[in-house]
Each structure stands twice: as C-alpha cells, then as structure tokens.
Amino acid sequence: MRIRYGMVGGGPGAFIGEVHRMAASLDGEIELVAGAFSANPSKSREHGERLGLPAERTYVRYQDMAQREASLPADERIHFVSIVTPNHLHFDIAQTFLEAGFHIVCDKPLTNTVEEAETLCRLASEREAVFAVTYNYSGYPMVKQARALCADAALGEIRRVAVEYTQGWLSTRLEAEGHKQAEWRTDPARAGVAGALGDIGTHAEHLSRYVTGLDLQALCAELTTFVPGRRLEDDAHLLLRFEGGARGTLSASQISVGEENRLSLRVYGTRASLEWRQQEAETLLLRHRDRPTEVYRRGHPYLAPAARHAARLPSGHPEGFIEAFANLYRAAGRAITARDTGARRDPLDLDFPTVQDGAHGVHFVHRAVESGQTGGWVDATYTLPGTTRLAAE
Q: Max Cα separation, the chain?
C-alpha cells in the first residue's frame, strides 16, 4: 500500500518543507499528492505546479484542503498531513485534520501552549490517529544504538547526562534584514514563549530522554538574549535533575559564532559512558573504566536491531540527516498502513516520536522559561492525562 500525504506550509523559501519532502519520498513508500503551501494563492499554485501536483489538489486554505480531501474516495484522498508551518499554526491545522479523520506528521515544537498540546493528545487518542512529531535526530541509527546500550544497562546506573546543541546563524540580528527564517523564529507571536530553546533546545531535551529513558524531575535555567533588540532568548543553559538521581546539563545556543549544527550527547554511568555527535553521526563511542574504548559504526551486524533497521546502506557509505529524517516518515507511514488495514505491525516501526513526546517538549519549554524568569529550580515532572506513550500502539 502506497501512502498518500498532503503538506501544509513548506512553500517558496521554506527550508524545512523541502527536507520533509525529500525524507518522505526516500523509500518510495510515501507520495505527495496535495498541499496548501502558502497563504498567497499564486505562490501556493506555483509551488504545487513545481512539485507536479494537479491544480485541484493545490489549495490556499488548509481548511478547504481538509474538507475536500475528506470528501474524496478512500483510494484517492490523503492518508496523513505533514505540517511544516511556523509554530503558532500547528495547533489549529492539526486539530482541523484530526477532526477530518486524517493522521498527522507535525514539525516541532508541537504547539505554543501546554493546553493545546494536551488537547491534541486527547483528540489523537479519541480518533485513534497516528501522530508523529519530527524530533528527527532520534532517527539516526547510532542514536538508536545508544538507546539500546542504555536500555541494556551497558553503562550501569546512569549518573550524568550532558547534551548540547549550538549554532551560530543568529549571532547577528538577521530578523531585521528581512531573513524569512529568522523573522518568525524570533517573533513571540509565531515562535511562542522561547527562541533558541523552542527551536533547538527541544531537540536536545528529547534526545536525552529518548536515549536514556529517563524523564526530567526538575530544572534550573538561565536564558539570555545577547543580540540587542531581539525579543526572545538566543542562548540557554540548564541544570537538570532526572528520575533515579541522575544529573545533567543542557545547552542550546544560536549565537555561538562559527558553529553549524553542533548537536552532541554524552551519558555517564557507573560502568561506562557513551558519546555521540551529529557531525560525526556514523560513530558512537562507548568508554569503559577498565578496558579500551569501543567504537560502534553504522551498518554493521553487531548493532542492536533498531540500529540495523534504521540503516539503508552498507557500512562505509555515509548516511546522514535526510536518512534519519526519513526513518521517522517511514515508521509513521508503516504505522498508518497497519492502523488503516489491520496488517501486522513490526515493533521496530513504532519507534518514532509521537504527539505525547511533542507535549513533553512543550511542557519542558514552558518550565524552562518559568525558571529563567524566576531564577531558580522548578518542578519539571510531567504526566500526560489519560494517554499512552505511543499513539501507534
């Protein structure tokens, strides 16, 4: 069964929309058949034409798209919608398509408020919808290997977690120069209550929770706006307390001059530690206190099943960002197929971030902003009301 999808957002000049489209199409299992790419009618039509879509499946209003697609025969309509708009639009679009009977893939952060995130969790559960949130770094094979090592207690009891995501592209006030991506990411009305923390800090928080399996209990945040005139923070440093007694640090910065996408994770246990860096994504280090360091490399048969399942090429042929992103789309697509047809589901295809993970991320951002404003520790525990971790289960 070939999965059909539509996209809201991702029009001319939208970097992440093109990434989503490349990722979705990589395995030949998912096809773009409809879209509302821009609120500007001519831009949406031109973009749809460029992507080879018929005029009647290119929309201006996402509400019209949801209504018309729901009216089409089952073998023509979309199975899910991919939401790649600025943050403030996520909730209304997701709610509209859930209520119209569609599955969802949504960019992060899920919403701008915790209340909106929890509403989507409840609605997805009621509609039995597959709802994926693109914390795409969890799609890397060696991140899945790191998760397997933590789950197998290869590190012993986890004591310390250090996660860092630093960029330098906002070290000057690009938003004042007409830079489209900078404009909305630094605008509280569109980005929400946080800047760097919402844009990349949520990735760091999810990565630490995904790999270790530990939830946050408390945090203390220092949020700084270094660029004069900017309305949201562009640098964040957090102290973390995890369940079980582990401690951690999280750094998210977009003013670190010279940095590209420096995402790294280190986890320290009583017996061993691990380190993964996105810019050297094919390698995972496992360091021991009493024997030489082990070097894990993508594509080898000694890896955990989830890491092998996430790789497409033999070792030595590099895979990277698009492939990791594609793993989320492939998993969500196969979960949708199983949900809609009653087919057997491979448990490995349930390994993707869900609407509940998205709600955790929104809660994390709001608690960190509260800590930054009050200058002290805040409770970061979070239990979603009446939901399970995986909407695809």
A: 65
Check if the beta carbon of residue 189 is closer than 8 Å to that of residue 275: no
pLDDT (0 to 100) of residue 122: 95
CA dihedral 130, 17, 353, 109 (to 10 degrees): -110
Rounded Cα–Cα distance for residues 61 and 44 (Å): 10
pTM, two decimal places: 0.95
Helix (H) or strand (E) holding 30: strand 30-36
Fill in the DSSP letter of residue 151.
H
Coil/strand/helix, residue 249: strand
| Cβ neighbours of 95 (radius 10 Å) | 18
As a whole number of angstroms, the distance between CA 327 and CA 307 comes to: 11
For 26, the 3-state DSSP assignment is: coil
Tokens of 109: 């952060």
Nearest to 389 by CA among 250, 209, 192, 197: 209
End-to-end CA distance of the chain: 20
Please give the Cα distance from 169 to 300 (Å, whole number).
Answer: 35
Cα 311 from Cα 22, distance rounded (Å): 17
Dump pLDDT digits (tens) for 204-254.
999 999 999 999 999 999 999 999 999 999 999 999 999 999 999 999 999
Eight-state DSSP code of residue 111? -
Q: Which residue has the tokens 């119209």?
A: 100
The side-by-side arrangement of strands in the sheet containing 131-133 is: 30-36, 3-9, 80-84, 103-106, 131-133
Q: What is the pLDDT of residues 264-316, one digit of tens each?
A: 999 999 999 999 999 999 999 999 999 999 999 999 999 999 999 999 999 99
Q: Where on the phi/psi map is residue 31: left (φ > 0), alpha (ψ -120 to 50), or beta?
A: beta
- Which letter, b or e, does each residue of 249-285 get, where b requires 16 or more Cβ atoms within 10 Å of its Cβ? ebbbbbbbeebeebbbbbbbbeebbbbbbbeebbebb
Encode pLDDT of 133-163 as tens digits.
999 999 999 999 999 999 999 999 999 999 9
24-43: per-residue pLDDT in tens? 999 999 999 999 999 999 99
Cα 234 to Cα 256: distance, rounded to the nearest angstrom: 9
- pLDDT for residue 385: 65
Closest CA to 310 of 327, 297, 298: 327
Residue 6 CA to residue 12 CA, distance in Å, equals 16
